[in-house]
Amino acid sequence: MKIDSLTPEQVLLTDEIANEKYVGLYAERKLSRLVIATESALLLGCFAVIVSLAQRPVVNRYVRIDEMSRAQAIQYSDLNYSPREGEVRTYLTDWANYRYTINRETISKKYPMNYYFLSTQLSNQYMADDNAVHLVSQVLANQIEQSDVEIDGVTITSMSQETVKGAVIARGTALVSITRIYSPRNSRQPRKEHWVLSVTYYLNPAQVSLAAQTFPQFETVNPLGLTITEFHENRLSVEPIDPTASPQTGAVSGVTVPAANARTVEVSR
C-alpha cells in the first residue's frame, strides 16, 4: 500500500505506531546503558575492595595455654604478646612426640609435623636425611625398629624477650627428658632408652600467618611459631625389658650408657 493512497486517519495511525516503536527502542537502549553502567560500577567497587583487603596487614592469631593446659585462641597485638613457660612446654612436648614416635600407624601423618618446629636450615637438613634413607618406606616395611615415646618432663632453663622489626620474639633454652620405648612386639631387644634433649629455640607468632600461606596446617600444628635452631641428643641410660614379664614389672634397673652415645645437632642462624 502506497502512502499516497492512505487516508489521513491511516497516516496518523502509522505515525503513532512509528513513534511508539521509536520510544520503545530508545527506552530499551537507555535501560541497557544503565544496566551496563551499574554493573561496571559494581565491578570497580569489588576490585577496590579486593585491593584494599590485599593491602590490609595480616592479622596474627595466637593460642594461649592456660593454667589447666587448655588452649584458648586470643587476638592481641605483637607488642602485648608475652609467651609463658607453659606454652613453650606444650609445643616442645608436641615436637618431641612427633619426632621420636616411630611406628607404622603414625609415620606418614604425624612424623612430618616435627619439621614445622625446626628452623628452615635444620628442617631442610633433616628432610634430606630422611628422604635419603627412605625412612617412611622402611618403617612401613618393618625394616626399621619401631618405638614409642614418653615425655618425662620439659624444663625451661632460660627465656628472654626482644623486639625485632616490630615483632616480639622470645628466645630460650630448654631440657626435654624423654623415654623411647622399644616393646617386645616391635623389637628383638626390648628396652627403654632415657634421653635428654638440650634445645635452643625462639618464638615468633608473626611468622605463623606467612608460613600458613605455604603450609596451611602450620597454623594449627605450631600456632606460636616455636622454632628450634639447635638441639643436642644425649642418651643417659638403657633399661632392658623382660619380654616374659607383665608391663607393670617389665623394667629392671638401668644400665648406664657411655658418653659416646651422645649426639649433637647444631645449626647456626
From TrEMBL:
<dbReference type="InterPro" id="IPR007430">
    <property type="entry name" value="VirB8"/>
</dbReference>
<feature type="domain" description="Bacterial virulence protein VirB8">
    <location>
        <begin position="41"/>
        <end position="232"/>
    </location>
</feature>
<keyword id="KW-0472">Membrane</keyword>
<dbReference type="InterPro" id="IPR032710">
    <property type="entry name" value="NTF2-like_dom_sf"/>
</dbReference>
<keyword id="KW-0812">Transmembrane</keyword>
<keyword id="KW-1133">Transmembrane helix</keyword>
<dbReference type="GO" id="GO:0016020">
    <property type="term" value="C:membrane"/>
</dbReference>
<dbReference type="Pfam" id="PF04335">
    <property type="entry name" value="VirB8"/>
</dbReference>
<protein>
    <submittedName>
        <fullName>Type IV secretion system protein VirB5</fullName>
    </submittedName>
</protein>
